Fold Growth factor receptor bound protein 10.
Amino acid sequence: GRHLGHNSELSKLPSTIDSLGVTSVPLNQWPDDVDLEALVNDMNSSFESLYSTCSSVQSESVPLLQHNGQHSPTSPKQRLRRSQPMHILAVRRLQEEEQQLRTSSLPAIPNPFPELSGSPVLSPGSLPPCQPSGTYIINIFSEDGMGKVVEIPADMTARDLCQLLVYKSHCVDDNSWALVEHHPLLGLERCLEDHELVVQVQASMTSEGRFLFRKNYAKYEFFRNPLNFFPEHMVAWCQETNGAIPPSQLLQNFLNSSSCPEIQGFLYVKEMGRKSWKKLYVFLRRSGLYFSTKGTSKEPRHLQLLADLEDSNVFTVTTGKKLHSAPTDYEFCIKPNKRTELKELRMLCTEDEQSRTSWMTAFRLFKYGIVLYQNYKIPQQRKTLSHFSTPVRSVSENSLVAMDFSGRIGRVIDNPLEAQSAAMEEGYAWRKRSQRMNILGSPSPLHPCLLSSVIHRTQLWFHGRITREESHRMIHQQGQVDGLFLLRDSQSNPKAFVLTLCHHQKIKHFQILPCEEDGQIFFSLDDGSTKFTDLIQLVEFYQLNRGVLPCKLKHPCTLVAL
């Protein structure tokens, strides 16, 4: 035997021997004289017993272990060569084939932004991570506080869920329904974009957050009226030239990711962790929201970042003055896409409603770009839910025209004065029809004279005895677009009604008074110049003609019970 010194190589022997099933002794307890040859023989015998078991199993199959591209020898001692690495080529080959199969099974996906990556097709490495699978339970609430539990797949978008709720609630699918993320304790809410995954949004919400199902006519109003949406002084280029964007190119510049438009102007900014507000000159760009530390300067050394667009969303603040002591009622908030506390929110405030709408819309345009336009332009891109189909019965303003059927064939009345005259004649004709029906005999349960006082209560635009403040809140929530309207009972006159109408983001009220003529009750909002037998006829008339109103009635303010 040889006397072995305590060196670093021998210190690895105990763990190696343990793994081979050979009894080991701690190094500090070994005797001075060790029979090295006997130790090696014991290790070889352990290897032989191990490989003899493996060879008996693999005798009928192709050997997996190869050395230098050749089959392993049959001798156990020749099979073990400690000085040479052993490559398991078969396992590697299986892994490579599996990776190739996974790659080849993916279809060629066109790259929507080839100028960014330089490739017209998305490669597997550039694809986003796999979305969660399975089904999830979502609670949806209506305006009256009632809820509905819906089980949805993980990849269902907000538009798909709205279509499902429209079908289940028997609503009119006019592409104006929206899913609203609502945080009652924070006083925040926002409409989900049509392409957002509902399950992912729910994962970022706190326990008090909830989803609301309601109308939102202003969701894509910018695409309908891009020239009149942003005031000229708010839109400029990012360059120091301060050049204005031509109105005809406004929409293209917002959607083109290579252009550099910006929204600029004074905003009230709430200091983090305090209740005080500062009036700052703010710039909204694709890279984020900045404010100038020196007046209205755009120099980079004077700009500081307020919020990032990529990982944030913009919310409307519903309790700004009460909760945050906001200087005006037109507050909005930039909230990170995570569960955040009140002190982490970036609170902002504008002077009027139009400015707030412009800032919030610009935030969405800079963040989503062309995707937002696709959501507006191609509603049929949504996934078809195979087990149902929803009828589209929306009525656009362009399909409503004044017609004259006094002759043999009908004709469209282009002259507004002639259209108003024809409407007045039609009102007199309704009166004559009602008088003829009175002469025929006693009224039946379906007689128009009895129905005229209650038939309007079946309409979606009639909301009964709600207050003026409640009507304002409903108009605000559903978009404040021109022509958004509702009818309600008058609080001052129990026999009268009130038409609440939105025009140029301002809410106006028009009283509808009853008037009696020849024993018949009529309704009018222009002091009897134009009379109607019931409120349904009044609404239909002003959907076709503006009359004394600032605009036609276009969008009924609707509530739905889930």
In short: The chain has a mean pLDDT of 75.
